[in-house]
């Protein structure tokens, strides 16, 4: 994967993160006013995603995102996500990836 492609992917991920967190915070609110920010947990394996989370937190006083860094792949982050769901304590938002396996000719 080229540097340009990685950069585009990172920008897309950051944009998706902001949109997802904004929607999740709307759904999490009860419609009333509160001095406390909405607390969200976000799991991601993407390198440097902490910078996007920090920028989001700085720009939004009414929402606070806690980043849980996970390992990419089925034996790392996905296993942690699945265990959290089974325990009834999943993250509010999680980033997952999908790699298509090319068909052999």
Automatic annotation (TrEMBL):
<feature type="signal peptide">
    <location>
        <begin position="1"/>
        <end position="24"/>
    </location>
</feature>
<protein>
    <submittedName>
        <fullName>Extracellular solute-binding protein</fullName>
    </submittedName>
</protein>
<dbReference type="InterPro" id="IPR006059">
    <property type="entry name" value="SBP"/>
</dbReference>
<dbReference type="Pfam" id="PF01547">
    <property type="entry name" value="SBP_bac_1"/>
</dbReference>
<keyword id="KW-0732">Signal</keyword>
């Amino acid at each position: 994967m080229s540097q340009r492609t990685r950069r585009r992917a990172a920008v897309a991920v950051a944009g998706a993160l902001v949109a997802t967190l904004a929607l999740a915070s709307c759904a999490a609110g009860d419609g009333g006013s509160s001095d406390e920010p909405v607390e969200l947990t976000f799991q991601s394996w993407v390198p440097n995603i902490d910078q996007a989370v920090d920028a989001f937190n700085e720009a939004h006083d009414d929402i606070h995102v806690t980043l849980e860094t996970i390992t990419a792949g089925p034996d790392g982050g996905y296993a942690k996500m699945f265990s959290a769901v089974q325990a009834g304590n999943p993250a509010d938002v999680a980033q997952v990836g999908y790699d298509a396996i090319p068909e052999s000719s």
